[in-house]
Amino acid sequence: MSTTNDNPLYEELLKDYDTKLDHSGINGKRIAKRLVELSKIGFVQVGGVKRPGFSNEEKDAKVLVKKWMAEAGLTVSEDGAGNVTARLEGKNNHPAIASGSHVDSVPNGGNFDGPLGVLSALEVAESWKEEGYIPQKPYEVIIFSDEEGSRFNSGLTGSQAMTGAISEEEMAQLRDYNGDTLEQVLTHYGSTLGAFKAAGRDLAELELFVEVHIEQGKKLEIVNQPVGIVSGIAGPAWLAVEFAGEAGHAGNTPMIGRKDCLIAAAEFIQSIPQFPKTVSDTAVATVGKMDVFPNGANVIPEKVKLLVDIRDINEAPRDQLIDQLIEQAEKVAAKNDIHVTVKLNTRIQPVPIAKDLQKRLAISLNKFGISPTYIPSGAGHDAMNLGRFIPVAMLFVRSKDGISHNPKEWSSLNDCVMGIHVLKDFIQDAMKK
């Protein structure tokens, strides 16, 4: 059985690591070892991980990080939505500064999306322990549940519960990939629907939330910078579209008069790329999930279900795009003489990052010789939900080839540790404000 030190991921992380980055209590080997330990939970043979929200794998990852949190001297708690909060008291009774991310993944996801943000936040506390530093204000490290949305086709579940941003109606509509309700999923996880509803916290207890995340794009690679500043977070909207036709024998049913809903779905999907550019330069729309019923090689499809992921960093054009795609789905259905139903599963408000916080992040970057690069985030993050109620900031760490949600996802240990140094400097500056 291999140990962490002879794990290929560990060796690759340390291969080109500059040990001069080990200072101020921050330790690259510790980060590498912890990334490796998390990579073993939900490991898939292609090299990535599968840790759906509220799964045993996500829970095991949280248990492991909670152990590290306690060893770092933090007081650890978990709410009814599975969100983990580890707190370090400060010298003053004051709202806390918080940082963190998530440990769940998409199917066959990578090892950095989410865990890097959690481990970065924890490493700040580890460095303070080694330095004997006591912050002026309380500090919290947070792990949010089910950020990716692979459980319910509707992400950011934990941060929605913490902020009270999920309604009773939305809770009632949630069904996972097994058809289980939110209540059934929570029961299996070890919680209850009542405890989930009670997970909302008084956000006046938090002064600021800052999240570290891999870029999931190529801008930092292009400008050759290890860390960048997020200028705004796109608000995702997920449209669940169901085309319903009429099943029939593939050989005996004439082409004329067929009600083939897969043909309609294909026409709809093919038309999608023409719409985002009509509303915004930053709007995007994607179909990445589709189910065909009964899914037989010799059966005309009776039903097709698909999800359209719609995003923009500005709310008005994003919502305009939603309306356009609903109208297009209805036109395509009418043209093909089939039925369509469209349901908006998720609609999250985009969050701009305050200019003052961006300037303060730039000051921290400059201290480490990094030229500030400003990047809009097309992806949604838990910081987005918190940003509706409290100030938030985000740092991106360079992604190799911009790859994410893929076992090939990679950020060098040098870049990861540099991001932690910037995070620590920014947080310590915020402690003085």
UniProtKB/TrEMBL annotation:
Signal peptide: none annotated. Keywords: Hydrolase. Gene3D superfamilies: 3.30.70.360, Zn peptidases. It holds the Pfam family M20_dimer. It comes from the Bacteria. GO terms for molecular function: hydrolase activity. Residues 235-335 form the Peptidase M20 dimerisation domain. InterPro entries: Amidase_Cbmase (IPR010158), Bact_exopeptidase_dim_dom (IPR036264), Peptidase_M20 (IPR002933), Peptidase_M20_dimer (IPR011650). Belongs to the peptidase M20 family. This is Zn-dependent hydrolase. It comes from Planococcus kocurii. The lineage of its organism: Bacteria, Bacillati, Bacillota, Bacilli, Bacillales.
